[in-house]
Write a structure and sequence with these properties.
Number of strands of chain B: 14
CATH architecture of chain A: Alpha-Beta Complex
Number of helices of chain B: 16
Helix content of chain B: 25-40%
Structural class of chain A: alpha/beta
Strand order of the largest sheet of chain B: 2-5-6-9-1-10-11-12-13
Largest sheet of chain B: 9 strands, mixed
Oligomer: heterodimer
Helix content of chain A: 40-55%
Radius of gyration of chain B: 29 Å
Distance between the termini of chain A: 16 Å
Largest interface: A-B, 44 and 30 residues
Strand order of the largest sheet of chain A: 4-6-5-10-11-9-7-8
Chain lengths: 502, 502
């Protein structure tokens, strides 16, 4: 029974708990057992909330027994990326500088999901402060890809993608700043959505780059992902950049799963040099599949997307240099050198030197430079102009088509260590995902098969205009249904068994 | 720092050789109920760190939301200063590390202030000086540091420091003048008059209690000198946090003398921050600004732009109170005062008090007499502002009423006020407790008058002979005999009556 429960979708678990066929406690225990069995190999979790999870599950069962009407995900377990504040668990952002920090408050996303009855299994590993594409930048060790533990699970939300792909959690949260949800979803064969910027609250999400950060959901199915999306999205008065509009009907769209007559644009610029042949092949097959399902496919040019990566690496680090200034050893987190002989400045400096990893320091320095007097216009100012041009590319494209599609990332999961010392190679993993972050529109990655040369999952990216997140789910669910049909089951069923469950 | 050890030059001598240029930056803490970006209370004087939350402590993940009331007050101040109101503007981050600043950046405004290009007219010796306003912008206050140990009370040399974040995040409006030229020897008075006028204007709007002693109005005074005949401005010094009107005037005067001394000795004025000392009336060197700090300003990505609706701005304009200078002219006419008398009242801060006393029922002349006479003398004795005396306009009005009805004479009234100031209660209670009721009943007074006539036969004869003016001496004797409690007018009548010359 136990291992069965971890194979269920979140939607199924919600129904089983609601009907009384199983309990939230049984479901939580099954996932905790699975974590105990396989996480020593995968290392997706930084903190497992075993007692707390069972306590929350008991509370849900009690509410249900008392006759309370609960939502579709009540009692369903979830893992949170360690960037969301949780008042009952540590929040470290994968950084030494926040080791052991227990926030006195919940992020809006955390709080809403708690209220909806989701049971928090724990906090997942990530690249330090969400800077990276592999989780190798975590201060607490690398997470392994369930498809091949010698490979990365993507990043920065790699702990969340690995936890879901390895059946340790049916759902997880992530944040997408340059692709940190979609890229890990793609390389672990699951679904991940970057909602419209402002469509999900950033309150209590430790900031990486404020103008880009988008909290979003992971799931193994498109419907699960939509259910989670709907459960935490929507206007939050605590986040000034949150959009005061209804959440797009994402669950309805995932159930509808039809693309007949939908106009689909293939982004011409995403392909060719630097793209793995198998990735391009699976992408083309998926486009053909959409055509066979009744979509009208055209090619669309977005000429300024070529400048998205350099613009991103000026804007994001600039915001980082300011956002991460607060980690100064004065109020919380790590404090080094406070021996009574050193000044506040010296304590700040020693703590930041030891508390931040190399990639974080690299970006703080890049951003500090880009914002410096005399350089601002040439770097930050210019990057903002590029951002405007990318917006215009999207606007023009969305006049012709309903959604844009591309591979999610140019390659499948790369081996651990391969790009760790080559930041430029690492940055290329986000080539196709960054434009949507810069423009703030919505995008999803859904599995579209295994690349023939390495047998690893390939992600198919769908992009929609701001607040048209529902289109992602319509297209994603249609692709998922057709492929499940073609493959005779979900892609994840072909993943190798792990550890004790073998 | 100065390249000379020569002392300051006498003020008159300094003004013969140099012409001063002023600049004033005033910070006003707004009197909103909650802080600029969170819901914490702004009440002054709370226990340290009791009015704080994740937002104003800058905890990881917390986000600011702008206070609409603070924006409204700022626009009102801008309108009252004849400024243009921005159609669209943004907050910006000012980045620098300091332990009393929780995020290590201050949310402020940079090149897009909410209000700009205005002016404020001030009157000095009957001459109107127009002070041009560069900008009025909105920002958040920092926490307050207390440096313990060491002799200076500053961070260097302190044993340790304490920080109170209650003040962190209180809305602060910064009002910056354009360089003020051509004030010549009146520069100190212009500086004082400007701050006085600004304070009244802000108070009239109701935007702040503008108490300099509590720091809700703080002033930085910039002074530079240029040699007579030159048109090139000298290097300026910036004297920080001058916290009384008198100090503003003294700081300007002191800087003019100091800089003139440096320049006359062939030295060079250093661009630096200086501190004003109330006790000596002089400034001392603080932090050098020769290597200007790079604040790396950039638009605050956590907040949305402010685009004040024109209809709203127009409505705020109609809600502005009568400008203080217009109001003074109106009151001067109503009260029938000379320019000199009105100016004296203005400088003493007596106008509101007199106005309130009149509103409480006293005739204008009486109200003015008591505040500008006896009470001004007492305030001066105690070196406090009139408004700080523990007596209310209603109490002064009551005393005036008792005099008018004949229950008190001026001498007794002064004793009643003394009792009120000493905390003995309301005027009527003081009259009763101290037995200050006037002796005016003819029986008792008649006896005293008879006795005085009997004791002074020579004077009585003169009066009988028609020298009515000599009656004063007898009235004086009556007052002496009654220890001042007699009604002098009635005593005179009785004397004349008794001596048959009435």
């Amino acid at each position: 029974m136990s291992s069965d429960l971890t194979r269920k979708s979140a939607a199924q678990l919600g129904e089983l708990i609601a009907s009384g066929e199983t309990s939230a406690v049984e479901v939580a225990q099954a996932h905790l057992d699975r974590i105990a069995a396989v996480d020593p190999e995968i290392k997706a979790f930084l903190h497992v909330n075993a007692d707390g999870a069972l306590e929350q599950a008991r509370a849900v069962d009690a509410r249900r027994a008392a006759g309370e009407e609960l939502g579709p995900l009540a009692g369903v377990p979830i893992a949170h990326k360690d960037v969301f504040t949780t008042r009952d668990q540590p929040t470290t952002c994968g950084s030494r500088i926040l080791e052991g920090w227990r926030p006195p408050y919940d992020a809006t996303v955390t709080a809403r999901l708690r209220a909806a009855g989701l049971v928090i299994l724990g906090k997942t590993n990530m690249d330090e402060f969400a800077m990276g594409s592999s989780t190798e930048n975590s201060a607490y060790g690398v997470t392994h890809n369930p498809w091949d533990p010698s490979r990365v699970p993507g990043g920065s939300s790699g702990g969340s993608s690995a936890a879901v792909a390895a059946y340790m959690a049916p759902l997880s949260t992530g944040t997408d700043t340059g692709g940190s949800i979609r890229q890990p979803a793609a390389v672990t064969g699951i679904v991940g959505t970057k909602p419209t910027y402002g469509g999900s609250s950033r309150y209590g999400v430790v900031a990486f780059a404020s103008s880009l950060d988008s909290p979003g959901p992971f799931g193994r199915t498109v419907l699960d992902t939509a259910l989670l999306h709907e459960a935490f999205a929507g206007h939050d008065p605590m986040d000034a950049t949150s959009i005061d509009a209804p959440v797009p009907p994402v669950v309805e769209a995932a159930r509808r799963a039809d693309v007949d007559g939908l106009r689909v644009g293939v982004v011409r610029e995403f392909g060719g040099e630097g793209y793995q042949a198998g990735v391009e092949q699976r992408f083309r097959e998926t486009v053909e599949l959409l055509e066979s399902l009744g979509a009208k496919v055209t090619e669309v040019s977005c000429p300024h997307f070529a400048y998205a990566l350099p613009a991103y690496y000026l804007i994001a680090p600039s915001e980082v240099s300011s956002n991460l200034a607060r980690f100064d050893a004065m109020r919380y987190g790590l404090r080094l050198g406070d021996d009574g002989t050193r000044s506040a400045e010296e304590v700040m400096s020693l703590t930041r030197e030891a508390g931040f990893g190399a990639e974080v320091k690299r970006r703080i320095m890049l951003g500090t430079f880009a914002l410096s007097s005399g350089y601002y216009d040439a770097y930050y100012g210019q990057a903002q102009k590029v951002r405007t041009l990318i917006n215009r590319d999207f606007d023009a494209a969305f006049e012709q088509v309903d959604v844009l599609v591309s591979p999610t990332t140019p390659t499948t999961a790369f081996p651990i260590g391969e790009r760790a010392d080559d930041p430029m190679a690492m940055y290329l993993a986000d080539l196709c995902t960054i434009p949507s972050d810069l423009s703030g529109n919505a995008a999803i990655s859904v599995p579209c098969g295994l690349s023939p040369e390495d047998g690893l999952p390939v992600g198919f990216q769908i992009m929609a205009p701001p607040l048209a997140d529902d289109r992602l789910y319509r297209v994603g669910a249609a692709v998922e249904a057709a492929f499940t049909d073609r493959w005779g089951g979900p892609l994840l069923d072909t993943a190798p068994e792990l550890g004790g469950a073998r | 720092m100065s390249t000379t050890t020569t002392g300051p030059m006498g003020y008159d001598e300094a003004l013969e050789a140099y012409e001063p240029v002023l600049g004033l930056e005033t910070h006003v803490e707004l009197g909103t109920a909650s802080k600029m970006f969170c819901g914490c209370s702004t009440t002054f004087g709370g226990e340290p760190n009791t009015q704080v939350c994740p937002v104003c402590l800058g905890l990881p993940g917390a986000l600011p939301v702008a206070n609409a009331a603070a924006i409204e007050y700022t626009i009102k101040i801008g309108l009252a200063l004849n400024c243009s109101i921005a159609e669209w503007c943004r907050f910006a981050r000012k980045n620098y590390f300091y332990p009393d600043m929780p995020k290590n950046f201050q949310i402020s405004q940079y090149d897009e202030p909410l209000c700009f290009d205005g002016y404020l007219d001030v009157e000095i010796d009957g001459r109107t000086v127009r002070v041009e306003i560069e900008r009025v912008h909105l920002e958040e206050d920092t926490g307050k540091s207390l440096h313990v140990g060491g002799s200076t009370g500053r961070i260097h040399g302190a044993d340790y420091s304490l920080v109170d974040y209650n003040r962190a995040g209180i809305p602060l409006v910064e009002i910056v003048t354009k360089p003020i030229v051509g004030t010549d020897r009146l520069a100190p008075e212009v500086a004082r008059a400007y701050v006085t006028e600004l304070r009244e204007l802000v108070r009239a709007i109701g935007a702040s209690d503008v108490r300099m002693e509590e720091g809700s109005l703080r002033c930085d005074v910039n002074v530079s000198l240029m040699p007579r005949g030159s048109s090139e401005w000298g290097t300026r010094s910036e004297t920080k946090n001058v916290n009384s009107l008198r100090s503003v005037e003294r700081a300007v005067r002191s800087e003019i003398s100091r800089q003139a001394g440096v320049l006359a000795a062939g030295g060079r004025v250093v661009q630096e921050t200086r501190h004003f000392h109330e006790d000596t009336g002089e400034t001392t060197s603080g932090r050098s600004k020769e290597e200007a700090q790079d604040y790396r300003y950039f638009p605050e990505p956590d907040l949305v732009p402010i685009a004040p609706d024109r209809a709203w701005v127009d409505r705020l304009r109609t809600e502005l109170p009568e400008p203080p200078s217009v109001r003074r002219r109106r009151l001067q006419a109503e009260w029938g005062l000379s320019d000199l008398d009105m100016a004296a009242m203005h400088n003493a801060g007596a106008i509101e008090l007199v106005e309130a006393t009149i509103a409480a029922g006293a005739p204008a002349a009486d109200a003015r007499k008591w505040w500008m006479g006896e009470l001004a003398r007492r305030a001066n004795e105690q070196a406090v502002e009139l408004v700080e005396l523990p007596v209310t306009p209603a109490q002064v009005a009551r005393v005036a009423q008792l005099v008018a009805s004949g229950s008190l004479n001026d001498k007794l009234a002064r004793q009643v006020l003394e009792g009120v100031l000493a905390g003995e209660g309301e005027p009527d209670k003081v009259v009763e407790a101290r037995g200050l009721a006037i002796v005016s009943d003819d029986g008792a007074l008649g006896d005293v008058v008879d006795q005085v006539i009997a004791d002074n036969p020579d004077v009585a004869d003169k009066i009988r002979g028609g020298k009515v003016a000599a009656a004063g001496a007898l009235v004086g004797a009556v007052m002496k005999a009654t220890r001042g409690q007699a009604d002098a007018g009635r005593a005179r009548e009785l004397i004349l009556e008794r001596l048959g010359v009435s």
